[in-house]
Amino acid sequence: MNLLPWWVLLACLAASAFAAYLLLGRTQASDSPWAHFPLTVVLAPVVLVGTVVAAIVLSTFLFALSEGRIGTLTDPSEPPTQTKGKDLEAAPEGTGVEATLDRTVPATTSPSASPTASPTASASP
Length: 125
Fold this sequence. Notes:
The chain is mainly α. It contains four helices and no strands.
């Protein structure tokens, strides 16, 4: 398992410490440096873990949204839609693509496809 380098974790921790410092600056803890700095040290890892959890949740939500799993409600009486590679009507083994095409494309008969009599046979004196 390949973990992040130590300097990346240190940079993320420094950024979360800065964010915690700014957040605590808006509270009464900023009145006393004896409370502001220790609370910043305690809250920096909490802010970092909260950011990581929020990123994982957002990533999972966006992935599910891009795959079409969210927002598509199906009626319980409807059969589930087929996905690629899960054809219920698979071609018999050993047949190949031609059999699949013959099965899926219906044969059509048109007047131009019917055989016509040759001009010599239809000529009458």
